[in-house]
Amino acid sequence: MPPNLQAYRGSLLHFLADPAFSADAHVYHADGLLIVADGKVQAAGDYASLHATLPPATPVHDYRGKLLMPGFIDTHVHYPQTDMIASPADGLLPWLETYTFPTERQFEDPAHAGQVAEFFLDELLRCGTTTAMVYCTVHPQSVDAFFAASERRGLRMVAGKVLMDRHCPEFLRDTAEGGARDTEALIQRWHKRGRALYAITPRFAPTSTDAQLHLAGELAGAYPDTFIQTHVSENQAECAWVHELFPQARSYIDVYDSVGLLRPRAMYGHCIWLDETDRARMAASGAAAAICPTSNLFLGSGLFDFAAADAAGMALSLATDVGGGSSFSMLQTMNEAYKVARLKGHYLPALRMFYLATLGAARSMQLEGVIGNFAAGAEADFIVLDPAATPLLERRNRAWQDAGASLEELLFALALLGDDRAVAATYAAGQPVYRRAAA
Ligand code: GUN
Ligand code: ZN
């Protein structure tokens, strides 16, 4: 059977390397064409040269004036916290006690979990996010509800059951053995089923006993192509607590390292209060950082140090961390990342931010070639961004163009001024999964 061919014309941007370390990291075609066959990228390039290669009846969707790029990847987000976004507290630990734990309790009910998962995924797609690394709750049914909703939409999603056997309310507590047993059953049920991928998910070191962390490490060794996700060095009170709970550990990251949780496909949220030894160890292990600027500013946790992370050679990605994060939009996340970098004396170019939200994340997850750019054979998860989505963006963009602006300048305005309104359409595996309502 001939493949299902579709083509999309518009400005086209994707990355082949990290712009911080390579002069020709990005590929841009002002008048580009993306050709999709059976849900995968067949080719991406100049309209003028590629159009001639299409069989005559191929549909060509006209997105001229808009920007086609790979879907955003959010490497750290909590779907059960959707309904408690924007809850005020004077720091991480009181925020967890007051809002997070009572909210997560509701996910014992599969119907509630399913309904929140549907809203959450709709919201991601409205914001142009096609893949996320997602925390569920301690309840296995919260994972089933999430993956079922994501499977219905055909999305490449990574998720896992939270492991938490101490320092939390009784109603959210599992046991070391029970949590490991549930995790293994969920890996067998969901990992690599369709586009689903499983993440072993100890919430963070303070809420797991040594026994639970050891069992999580054993599972990570037994299933080496699963993901791992947890929090590290987010907040100073949290770091002091970890120091008390694990006096034998050299550092917070060492608690995870000593049980085998530092390896490729491990995603560490925050990574603010690390030292040089921690950064070097993360880089050497292949574990990656999920940088969560809206959350870190909202909870007053601290400022991620981009220069130190780059000097150590750490794998980096951007993440919303909703509900600690205050926006689902990766454009708003870039906006805040830029300002966090400025406050640390570092300059973060727009091209680097778009890289971190696409190929940088895919590389951090060892998924290059699967998602994150328009390499031939990659899954066709892509978005259509509208650089004139709002009156202000339209005006700013026109002023830039009249001044002969560079791609960097145009992308910068999109990152600083854009949000969900800048996403005109979202496609997953070549299928339309969101289209902005016509004005
Ligand atoms: N540390 C442990 N749990 C959480 C959480 O749910 N959100 C954030 N931001 N940090 C955490
Ligand atoms: Zn988090």
UniProtKB/TrEMBL annotation:
- One protein family per Pfam: Amidohydro_1
Q: Does the keyword Hydrolase apply?
A: yes
Cofactor info, note text = Binds 1 zinc ion per subunit.
In which pathway is this protein known to take part?
A: Purine metabolism; guanine degradation; xanthine from guanine: step 1/1
- Amidohydrolase-related domain mapped to chain residues: 68-433
Could you tell me which InterPro entries the record lists for this protein? Answer: Amidohydro-rel, Guanine_deaminase, Metal-dep_hydrolase_composite, Metal_Hydrolase, Metallo-dep_hydrolases
What does the UniProt keyword field contain?
Answer: Hydrolase, Metal-binding, Zinc
The chemistry this enzyme catalyses reads: guanine + H2O + H(+) = xanthine + NH4(+)
Listed EC numbers: 3.5.4.3
Query: Which cofactors must be present for this protein to function?
Result: Zn(2+)
Task: Return one GO MF term.
Answer: guanine deaminase activity
The family annotation for this protein states: Belongs to the metallo-dependent hydrolases superfamily. ATZ/TRZ family.
Quote the function comment for this protein: Catalyzes the hydrolytic deamination of guanine, producing xanthine and ammonia.
Q: Protein name, please? A: Guanine deaminase
Native species of this protein? Duganella qianjiadongensis
Query: Coding gene?
Result: guaD
